Amino acid sequence: MKKIDCRGKACPHPVLMTKDALDELVEGEVILIVDNEAACENVERFARSQGCPVAIEKKGADFYLRIGKATSGERRTGLEKKEDGNIVVYINSRFLGAGDEPLGSILMRTFLKTLLELETKASRLILINSGVWLVSEGSDVLETLRALSEQGVEILSCGTCLDFYNLKEKLKVGTVSNMFTIAQTLFEASRVVRP
Prior knowledge:
The protein is α/β, with parallel strands linked by helices. Helix content is 34%, strand content 22%. It has helices at 13-24, 37-49, 101-117, 142-150, 159-164, 179-188, and strands at residues 2-5, 29-34, 54-59, 62-68, 87-91, 124-127, 154-158, 175-177, 191-193. The strands form two sheets. The protein has a five-stranded parallel β-sheet. Strands 1-2-4-3 form a four-stranded mixed β-sheet, covered by helices on one side. It is elongated.
């Protein structure tokens, strides 16, 4: 059994440390300790994506993740690619383009609605920085983003960004992600579209 203390480590370090530990794991399990819920969710999501069983125990303010070894054949090398060429749309602002913000808001709303109508579909939307406002309570594009999600588009929002803007509790569509998953998604994409 290997024990790794990730308390105080910022995203994406807990996930990276988990990946390294799983790569080295021959038998037994890894116990990873984190001190916040976002890190716990990110590590759990990553470990499960690798086919590893995960048990979580909360002790005080800390989370203890007991991660077992994936059985042969379960371990995945990365995120599963989706149909239509694995196209990722990368949105780093709640506005489209530079200049007038009301115009940028109109353009973003129009762009997202257009994604619904295109024959070629995106596999994932990644939202970082102020782009996370689009998936949060009060956003005027939530209905469009929900429709995209129903079409099978995976929507990933940067957890650090949601925390920065105090929006984590206001997330209304998609999932909270981390920089490791975001970087891996971008590198594995056949095409990245940045409006």
